[in-house]
Amino acid sequence: MTDALFPPSSAQTLTPSANILYGCGISGGIAFGQAIFLPSISSSTSSASAAASDSSYATPHSPDTALHATSQAENQNTTPDQQQAFTQALLLLTDLLRQQLAQSDNATHAELIEAELLLLEDEEFIQAVMQSIAQLHLSADRAIERVIRQHADELAALGDNYLAARAEDLISLGERLKRVLQDGIASPFANLPKDCILLADSLTPAEFSALPLENIQALVLRRGTLTCHTAILARSANLPALLGCDFNQANISPHTPLVLDATEQCLYINPDAVLADNLKQKQQQLAHYQQALTRFCDQPFATQDGQRAQLLGNIASGADISTLQQLGMDGVGLLRTELMLLNAPTLDDEELQYRLYCDCLRQLNGQTFTVRTLDIGADKVLACLPTTDEVNPALGVRGIRYSLAHPATLIPQLRALLRAANQGPLRLMVPMLNQPEEWQAFTALLQQCRDDLTESEQGYGPLSLGIVIETPAAALNLAAMLPQLDFISIGTNDLTQHTMAADRSNTSLSQQYPSLCPPVLLLIKHCITLAHQQGIPVSLCGELASNPVAVPLLFGMGLDEFSVCPSQALAVKVALANVSAKQCSEIAANALKARYISELEACISTINSQTD
Ligand code: PEP
Ligand code: MG
């Protein structure tokens, strides 16, 4: 029997002598730091005088002084002052972008920065703003707004999707320039102290990806849940976080000492010395546990008695592949291409995508590589796409629905993937696909891409094809689609959302959106049974696969591949190594009979007590 290896448990929970807030803990770590409030990134929050102060993060509820700053500027509007302010802001932002460009190791991000620099250095743009200040007596920010708006309107009026997206880029760059003008700092993250615990209402995945993680010890958000995409990114980055934590109720002042214990899903506010000491000890125990886990890097993903399954990774870019390999994983079970292209200037750059996929294949060197077509919509908003105002985005034009409605976006991706498939084995899967009709439309488009590549004498390789099961409809329609599929992957984050009719990112629905519940378990079992009858392997790429507690159960249900967040890979290996295949089957048999979540939890916990 493998030595049981368990993280420091809640038995060590401490009696708090501090104010304490709860939320949904991500990444499982403990972090110490000072409270720093992030003002809403998309709106200006500090006045011009803040430029001289140490930071723009001073107050939890920053006053909306943007308008105030504007009118002040107009009162003091002397042309040379305003022109100088504009030139100064231009220099600051250009400087920051150059630094970011030099540090960027991401080709798409670099291209976006280059495009922004081009505009900021464009003589016509600079002259137009200077003239608006001089001739129309506008303040610098009004002049920027006017020139940018004019330019964006001209682009949008051309009625082309690509140019409409460029117009959005322009407006967002104009907003940043105005913010620099008002704050005197070029980045909303400038001057962040090294020991900062960042507090914010919410962050989009794109905003998260712009955070200077080296300065951030932990993240606390008022909104969000375990399976929202910002949480998924935080977990990938191994950043302790607490989501859905209503910190406004605690009246925390800036710079207050905080300790975030993601293992206990709580935030201690200004803990006393004894508590802080205890938490430090627990942090050290966790570090030892993490260290002890590393011996599993070169262990296979197998039960105590040697029954194996595939352990794959969920990744957001090729940069994550070396981590998978260090952890001894078997390849990639889900490349979220929309996260890879979050900040790309455009989605129709076939060459750029081709290079990115080839780079992944080269690194993987024959290991499994599973790419998901763009899964746009719901909480995944891309920099290069105009935002939509759907009333119900989780049920809206998202995933394959978006791709089929915008073939000009899907086709470059399919062509890039087909061409890359010449370089190594590539599995392609389609998100949010419910019906065989959608599968037909998708495969027709794929065939059209193959024909076009043949006609232009460009080579392409074979793709294994699959779908992500994310709705009850997909599970119930599976039999009709299986004959044309090479594999399936179960996306439990969305499958749970759509089965339970509970928004996965709504903090108030934690009871209605459980991480594991009988109806979702039955749907998973249904898919595994059907797929195995046809000899088709089944993967699971939702967060459930990353939960060590669920691993023996899923293995016992016959799951072939676990596609997990790499930061959880070793804990998942340990969870399987601690049990025998027979124990897994018994758990599965009992769990599938459970009618209540509590019964399900009881079935799973039998394992922990047996291996304790
Ligand atoms: C899922 O829904 O389970 C999934 C893996 O996709 P995403 O989390 O990207 O929606
Ligand atoms: Mg999904």
What's a concise summary of this model?
The chain has 612 residues and is an alpha/beta fold.
CA gyration radius, whole angstroms: 26 Å
Mean pLDDT score, rounded? 85
Helix-residue proportion: 40-55%
Order the strands across the largest sheet as they lie in space.
1-8-7-3-4-5-6-2
Kindly, what is the distance between the CA atoms of the first and last residues, rounded to a whole number of angstroms? 12 Å
- Under CATH, the topology of the largest domain can be stated as TIM Barrel
Q: Main beta sheet: strand number and arrangement?
A: 8 strands, mixed
Spans of at least 5 consecutive residues with low confidence: 10-17, 40-76
* Share of β-strand residues: 5-15%
Write the CATH architecture name of the largest domain: Alpha-Beta Barrel
CATH homologous superfamily identity of the largest domain? Phosphoenolpyruvate-binding domains
The CATH class of the largest domain, by name, is Alpha Beta
- What is the count of β-strands? 16
Which of globular, elongated, flat, extended, rod-shaped describes the shape?
globular
| Bound molecule kinds, no repeats | phosphoenolpyruvate, magnesium ion
Q: Given the helix and strand composition, which structural class is it?
A: alpha/beta
What is the count of structural domains?
Answer: 3
**Helix segment tally:** 23
